[in-house]
Design brief:
Protein name: Polysaccharide chain length determinant N-terminal domain-containing protein
Main location: membrane
Distance between the termini: 41 Å
Structural class: alpha+beta
Subcellular location: Cell membrane
Helix content: 55-70%
Number of helices: 8
Membrane topology: Multi-pass membrane protein
CATH class of the largest domain: Alpha Beta
GO molecular function, one term: protein tyrosine kinase activity
CATH topology of the largest domain: Bacterial polysaccharide co-polymerase-like
Order of helices and strands: HHEEEHHHEEHHEEEH
Length: about 300
């Protein structure tokens, strides 16, 4: 009896497992079969969804893209080859993305209520969100992209952007010139002290030479070393002075240059293919949900 009961349990367990495996195999087949049985509904739903996507495309507000190319200026101590950037390309990119700079650009376009958040006009919010600087690797160029609702609007923002960036960079050489002037004054002061010391040492050396030969030996050697060191210091200070003088010349400033604005011929957004594809997918999903709901409702009625 125990063996028979055990045999029945084993058979029942194997049957349940087999049934579960069979149901797992059937479910994908039922899913595919449901798609084929309701292909007309799915096709109609996809077409309607695509039509809605196309309709939404024509109602969407078009957006154009503008591009500016910025070459960061240089300050040179001599020729252009021997020069340093007014500020790093990455630093300029960070500057143009900063809130202070963007606010200044927006004010230059004539909009005064800056920083009102959602209360700002759509064109202002679009400019803020779309402004993207990207440095060109291995060069001193920076590419600026931003969006607008019309080419005229983009030209206005491009002019304001150029004005603010050039004004910001023109302040950098002014500050640098002030630093160079201060360094030059300090150098002149140090040079005056060194020249005075050199004159004093040479006079002392001349007096030592008038003493007897045996008395001047030690003093003459010490003063000679001091005079030589002082002369080397004077030459070094004069070299620094010449370098500072060259850097203060305005002819050695190579200013920042901003290209003319380049605006796309056609709107970059919206794109018809994305609206159409999205409408087809959403329509197909809605059709499938409807077909499943319809089949479930029929089965409930039959029960």
């Amino acid at each position: 009896m125990q063996d028979e009961n055990y045999s029945r349990n084993v058979t029942t367990g194997n049957g349940a497992a087999a049934s579960a495996g069979k149901s797992e195999e059937i479910f994908p087949m039922e899913f595919i079969g449901n798609l084929f049985r309701n292909w007309k509904i799915l096709a109609v739903a996809a077409v309607l969804g695509g039509a809605c996507g196309v309709g939404a495309y024509f109602f969407a507000t078009p957006k154009w893209q503008a591009s500016l190319l910025v070459q960061v200026g240089k300050v040179s101590a001599g020729t252009e080859r021997d020069s340093t950037l007014i500020e790093g390309v990455g630093q300029t990119g960070y500057r143009v993305r900063s809130k202070e700079f963007v606010d200044s650009v927006i004010r230059s376009t004539g909009y005064t209520e800056v920083g009102a958040g959602e209360a700002e006009p759509p064109e202002v919010r679009l400019f803020r969100s779309s402004l993207k600087p990207a440095d060109v690797p291995g060069t001193d160029f920076l590419k600026i992209d931003f969006l607008g609702y019309s080419p005229e609007q983009l030209k206005k923002y491009a002019a304001a952007f150029t004005q603010e960036l050039l004004a910001a960079h023109n302040n950098v050489p002014g500050a640098l010139k002030a630093d160079l002037t201060a360094a030059l004054e300090k150098n002149k002061s140090e040079l005056a002290v060194a020249e005075s010391s050199y004159e004093r040492l040479t006079k002392e050396y001349a007096k030592v030479l008038q003493q007897p030969q045996d008395a001047q030996l030690l003093s003459a050697s010490v003063l000679t070393a001091q005079v030589q060191n002082n002369a080397a210091l004077i030459e070094s200070l004069r070299k620094v002075q010449r370098d500072l003088d060259r850097r203060l010349f305005p002819t050695n400033l190579y200013p920042t240059v901003v290209s003319a604005v380049d605006i796309t011929d056609r709107p970059v957004s919206p794109k018809l293919k994305f609206f159409l594809a999205g409408g087809l997918v959403i329509g197909f999903i809605c059709g499938f949900i409807f077909s499943v709901f319809r089949r479930t409702t029929r089965l409930d009625r039959m029960r």
